[in-house]
């Protein structure tokens, strides 16, 4: 490095010290400015879908919105009536019991905000409020994670962390405008709970302070249990971490008191959630919380009565004994295990036994490609940060290390868990980057005698290493256009229309077929019409089409879903009977197709619609065949030698109701197979609506509505 450059870098600390003196010895204004930049960035990126208007994304958010509006219609009394609410537009003919099906947190929060604003005379559109709340939750997350990171790793890493989080693809994916779902609200709540728990167990805290902060932590965790099915991951973290502290001989009166306060509060809230109830105390997720209490008490008394060596031996011996007892109790069935969907996060191999869960893309195992897309280069900085945390060895650092290892495992086990992992990845990346930059800065500002002893290679590395890291990270966030569509940028990843506007296709321009079809159903089907469709579309049909559906995304009744699947894969005479038994008057299917360019009649199925989803219909129908009283369907006879919908046999196309309803039929010339439009003629069914003409060049999705006729 030249003398001039060295002098320039040497003046940097003096400039900061002078600025620090000007600000009264504090960097608070700079710190606040960086945090404000992160919050503003989070707002701008997550608000991009607002240009398509107030609509919700995907499917589940429409259900949360429906529940919230049912509460709003009843006013403040709706919160008390939640337990007994039944929606008759879903799961015909029984309807859907809202209280026993849904966690109330998302709907309660929106209803509370809406009713409060109304009480103050502020008028707001409920749908617009629902669409905007995830953006607000995303901004709140940035602030909460900042304080969480600052408490554990310090100011510099915390500021770097929130800058990463504000443009994290994984976090943006479920906190952008319109994603009105439970994760967006739960993530800031869980990190606030973790922060208050760490504050509560600080040995310098007074007992009164530990009790107070423990109660606050319990309230936040209780809020999460009332909001998110994956709260089991949150409530498992507190007992696990506390047990580790006891195992390491770090249990003190603050830890014991804070734990008792935290657990008592969130347990009391959890058992009052209608979906969980008092029986939840015997599920392993919650039982771990109270099972650990006698262990902590024994370790506490051992620490008070014996020296350090003996107390550690007792702590580890009792831990081993309780682990054996716990496994025995679970094996004997005295405690309930979480549902297989949640248990499969720990052991993904069990997911194969649940076709309904496995059929959802976000429930699949993550790949290195999906992890890198979600986290980008920040993922590469995480391992070193975990090493730094373990080396630091404080209680707070230990918590973050355990949390990071568990979160990374869960994210690799299930794609959708990238979101709750995104804040901890951001904190780890911020910790590593801050460590490298601070180390380089110290190297560049060494006193003159030490500078002369430093090698040229070391001087260059001090500049090059942080620059290379920053370049690698920044390139990930720069949009790279390929065919007019950004392929890599997480910022551009947020700029997508709501799912219903893209007809659930992975495109960035609106495809209005589902919107047109739902509007047609709303205005043209009889008021008492009952629509059968695959469960993916049930919420849209009920909420946007305003028509009664048989099954939907809540998937509360696998037998009814399997019966619907059986109907689609049965011959028309059998399917008509099944649909009639279900109460259906109409059947809706969705097909994705791309025509050839240049006027040639034909094209290719894209396999994003029912032409692909029937694979899971087959699996689910066979899983429940015994409960339905039907024989199993010969899968090979429909899937063919390839074992997938792309190799569907003639039997599928000529004998199943769904195969006959799909109007694009396969034609094989030599080794090439393409699909040609052939109007469907199906006994017992009449096509009454198609969302687009055949071979339309402005769409890739087609919705068809059939009426069941005598």
In words, what does this structure look like?
The chain has 710 residues and is of the alpha+beta class.
- Total beta-strand segments: 12
Number of helices: 33
The radius of gyration computed from the alpha-carbon positions, rounded to a whole number of angstroms, is: 29 Å
Helix content: 55-70%
Main beta-sheet annotation: 6 strands, mixed
Q: Could you give the distance between the termini?
A: 88 Å
Strand fraction band?
5-15%
**Quaternary class:** single chain
In terms of per-residue confidence, which ranges show pLDDT below 50 for 5 or more consecutive residues?
A: 482-487
Structural classification: alpha+beta
Q: What is the strand and helix layout of this fold?
A:
Blueprint: H1 3-22, H2 28-46, H3 60-74, H4 78-81, E1 86-87, E2 96-97, H5 98-101, H6 105-119, H7 126-153, H8 155-166, H9 169-172, H10 182-200, H11 207-225, H12 231-247, H13 253-270, H14 284-305, H15 308-331, H16 340-346, H17 355-358, H18 368-375, H19 378-392, H20 395-413, H21 418-444, H22 448-453, H23 456-476, E3 481-482, E4 485-486, H24 490-493, H25 513-524, E5 530-532, H26 538-543, E6 548-549, H27 558-568, H28 572-582, E7 586-595, E8 603-605, H29 610-623, H30 625-628, H31 635-639, H32 650-655, H33 657-661, E9 664-669, E10 672-677, E11 685-690, E12 701-708
Parallel strand pairs: 5-6, 5-7
Antiparallel strand pairs: 1-2, 3-4, 7-8, 7-12, 9-10, 11-12
Write out key terms for the chains shown:
two-stranded antiparallel sheet; 6-stranded mixed beta sheet; alpha+beta; 710 residues; Rossmann fold
